[in-house]
């Protein structure tokens, strides 16, 4: 139930912000907006100036007299603003045989059309910057002040490519690194390099580690090595009626030991549990200030039904920011996330990364929304900011149905100084809509099988 509530809340916020951008820009340009909807499909209820608050569909012959019907619709998977005189995902072409009216989208100059179509993306971008700025100003930012590699297990990816426990990372592709964020950012934000060259100090000697980029693309989906420091995994979720719930395990428990083995990271937990299906395992947990001892029996497929996140207790410092520097750092954070997102998109199109690994659908969003909310308001706001930015980036891609696809069509019409025939626009929209539906179905399928 938590997943559903947080999914609706998260999507509702992001859709409202995005569509409000389109709505506001249309109003500024004196374009009529017939509908402002959160959700798709059947109208549940709404309000307009003509007949006030009503439940269910509006009468088919209603004349809104230029006003907007603000509504909540049945499927909470998005939303839309129905802009008069525009061919969009509503596929309404009732105006095609009429002369453009002054209040219609199609009668406006190119620069106003482009402003309206990009306003949703801009609002999502502003929301992301505002959240990051607020977090930086009111809370500051924890910086992991080390480049020392923590526990590296034999036969792990990190071990196989050459890392050893206690390595101090000096530089990545000749770029010096000073903290753990810069280590991971420089590893992930790679474009043209076929090999990552990492200089480390080991036992007083400088050692070069070379990682093929293709291998790194796959490994970077997880934290394949961790900074030095006590890294104890915290339980973020306990599935109902699971072995973990039966054993009395609770959210926010820290896992200290399993089967008398000390636990340093989430991978330790996964390795021990997955290799002991249907065998009782002792567990030592830290719950607040109390130590809890229990026993859990993994299912036949080696799972106990918990979500995990690592906690860091090594050397760190908290940076505080003034309001101007908070804004500057917020913009810098956004730039880093934009670069990272486009790197992942580029890898998908290059065939170096599977679509299911790079993108998550409604199920994944619901899961991450609930998990981040469980970790507190700041964690949820960070998740909301990153998701808002992802929505902006994906929407601006030049693909039919998306804002970026509309942008390209408007730009072409502006250069040609005439409208593309509506039949062609409709064909483009239909093809794009079908491809998008198939892609979403594939992503949702991946979400479900990876639960």
UniProtKB/TrEMBL annotation:
Pfam families: PDZ_6, Peptidase_M50. GO terms for biological process: proteolysis. One of its GO terms (cellular component) is membrane. Residues 134-204, 221-289 form the PDZ domain. The chain crosses the membrane at residues 6-25, 114-138, 426-445. It is found in: Membrane. One of its GO terms (molecular function) is metalloendopeptidase activity. Keywords: Hydrolase, Membrane, Metalloprotease, Protease, Transmembrane, Transmembrane helix, Zinc. It is a multi-pass membrane protein. Its cofactor is Zn(2+). This is Membrane-associated zinc metalloprotease. It comes from hydrothermal vent metagenome. The lineage of its organism: unclassified sequences, metagenomes, ecological metagenomes.
């Amino acid at each position: 139930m938590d997943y559903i509530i947080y999914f609706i809340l998260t999507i509702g916020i992001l859709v409202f912000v995005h569509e409000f951008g389109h709505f506001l820009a249309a109003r500024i340009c004196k374009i009529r907006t017939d509908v402002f909807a959160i959700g798709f499909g059947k109208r549940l209820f709404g309000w307009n100036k003509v007949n006030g608050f009503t439940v269910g569909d509006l009468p088919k012959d209603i004349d809104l007299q230029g006003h907007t019907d603000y509504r909540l619709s049945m499927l909470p998977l998005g939303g839309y603003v129905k802009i008069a005189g525009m061919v969009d995902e509503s596929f309404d072409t009732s105006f095609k045989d009429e002369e453009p009216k002054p209040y219609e989208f199609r009668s406006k100059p190119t620069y106003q059309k482009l402003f309206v179509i990009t306003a949703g993306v801009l609002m999502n971008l502003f929301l992301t910057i505002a959240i990051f700025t607020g977090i930086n100003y009111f809370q500051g930012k924890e910086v992991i002040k080390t480049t020392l590699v923590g526990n590296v297990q034999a036969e792990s990816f990190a071990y196989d490519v050459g890392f050893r426990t206690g390595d101090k990372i000096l530089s990545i592709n000749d770029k010096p690194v000073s903290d753990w964020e810069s280590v991971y950012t420089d590893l992930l934000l790679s474009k043209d390099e076929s090999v990552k060259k990492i200089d480390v100090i080991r036992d007083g000697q400088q050692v070069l580690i070379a990682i093929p980029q293709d291998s790194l693309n796959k490994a970077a989906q997880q934290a394949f090595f961790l900074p030095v420091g006590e890294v104890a995994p915290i339980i973020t979720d306990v599935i109902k009626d699971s072995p973990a719930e039966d054993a009395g395990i609770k959210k926010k428990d820290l896992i200290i030991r399993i089967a008398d083995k000390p636990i340093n990271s989430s991978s330790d937990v996964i390795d021990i549990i997955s290799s002991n299906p249907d065998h009782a395992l002792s567990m030592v947990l830290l719950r607040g200030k109390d130590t809890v001892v229990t026993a859990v029996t993994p299912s036949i497929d080696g799972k106990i039904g918990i979500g995990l996140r690592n906690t860091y207790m090594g050397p760190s410092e908290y940076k505080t920011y003034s309001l101007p520097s908070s804004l500057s750092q917020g913009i810098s954070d956004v730039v880093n996330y934009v670069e990272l997102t486009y790197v992942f998109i580029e890898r998908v199109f290059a065939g170096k990364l599977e679509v299911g690994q790079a993108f998550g659908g409604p199920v994944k969003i619901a899961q991450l929304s609930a998990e981040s909310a469980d970790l507190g308001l700041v964690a949820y706001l960070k998740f909301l900011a990153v998701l808002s930015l992802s929505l902006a980036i994906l929407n601006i891609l030049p693909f039919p149905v998306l804002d970026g696809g509309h942008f390209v069509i408007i730009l072409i019409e502006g250069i040609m100084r005439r409208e593309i025939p509506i039949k062609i626009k409709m064909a483009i929209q239909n093809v794009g809509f079908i491809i998008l539906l198939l892609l979403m179905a594939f992503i949702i399928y991946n979400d479900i099988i990876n639960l």
